[in-house]
Amino acid sequence: MIALFAFLSAAFVIWRAVLTIPGKHPVWKVAAAVMVTVAAFKFQILHAFGGAMYFAPDLPRGVLLVGAYVYAVHFIFFFLLLFSECCRMLVRCAVQLVRRKIPESYHRAGRWINLILFAVAVISAAVGMMYGTAFPELREVTFEIPGLPRRADGLKIVWLTDLHVDAMSDPERIEHLVAKVNSLKPDLVLLGGDLVDGRVAALGYKLLPLAGLEARFGVYGVPGNHEYYSGYYEWMSFFENQCKVRMLVNTSHSPGCGIFLVGVGDAAGKRNRAPEANFRQAFKDVGSDDAVILLAHRPDIVHCSAKMEVMLQLSGHTHGGMISGFDRIVRKVNGGFVSGKYTVGNTRLYVSNGTGIWSGFPIRLGRKAEITLIKLERD
């Protein structure tokens, strides 16, 4: 799918922008076409030089930053150009209804529009990377839940997800994150997966500060799809033994605050010989009257949660859609869920924008990273 998008986006940009560059000499057009192709196939090129892991190439931080920026410019320019072309088609149809021939001024205007859109893409990618790599903001959310157990009334939960620690990540970032979380004095700290992109041997030291997380009723987590790509069993052992995070994979636990925590695996397990979501196994020790908070990396599993009468599901995975407007596409491929609060049946769902960002596309425009402080109140 990624390779297909690279081919189609490169072909479209070359067709609608590069080939329209004025002048008979082909050198500039050839050079521009090569640059567009390199930008579009960034993932494949970095993978060729960066080792076995497709989503976590083992390359210098500077190379990854430049690659991410160039790809972001191409990605944004492609969608701006696609939207512009749709508008131009409408204009051409309108002009041809009035006069048969398209004036030369129309073509000149099109070239200027392409240049302006490219400039917008260059600036947007720079601003997007600035926000994408910025430290997450605190977002406070309250859920008023009828029948909430009295012991859970006022419970404070910190929800962290999608850290995506990799070769591009600042080693001190997790230390600052842990200090911020501890200053909130939470009752529970919950981690929603996609914490890493890479092997334990290369990145484990960057995650060690997670062992310093402090919460009255403990620290718990579930894996995301990127843990499966990065060496599922090694990371699960590392989180449990080195980071002191209790990983809930198709299992449950009662931390002693009036609720049950249930965690499920991810759909990526099917392709990586590791546990995928199994609700029957996860709920085998949970009573029908127990209040349950379900940890699931992907939000679209909420329909299964609703059938199990889950009180609250916490998810991530979407990064909030990353870009305002583009979030509508992300919503459609995630069951209609992308950011914030939802209700499905009697189940409440919260989807975080993510606490970090994936270096493959580290862009945020209008969808800031977050440390989510959730408070439960009895309605």
How would you describe the shape?
elongated
Average pLDDT taken over every residue: 93
- Our estimate of the beta-strand percent is 15-25%
The poorly predicted ranges are none
CATH architecture assignment of the largest domain: 4-Layer Sandwich
Count every helix, treating DSSP H or I runs of 4 or more residues as helices.
11
Q: Could you say how many structural domains there are in total?
A: 2
CATH class of the largest domain: Alpha Beta
Helical amount:
40-55%
* Main sheet specs: 6 strands, mixed
Strand order of the largest sheet: 1-12-2-3-4-5
Rg, alpha carbons? 24 Å
**What's the name of the CATH homologous superfamily of the largest domain?**
Metallo-dependent phosphatases
SSE succession: HHHHHEEHEHEHEEEHEHEHEEE
The number of strands is 12
Structural class computed from helices and strand pairing: alpha/beta
**Cα-to-Cα separation, first versus last residue:** 46 Å
Please provide a brief summary of the model:
The chain has helices at residues 2-18, 27-40, 42-49, 61-98, 104-132, 173-183, 200-207, 225-241, 279-282, 302-307, 327-332, and strands at residues 137-145, 156-160, 188-191, 219-221, 246-247, 251-253, 260-263, 292-295, 312-315, 340-344, 347-351, 370-378. It is α/β, with parallel strands linked by helices and 379 residues long.
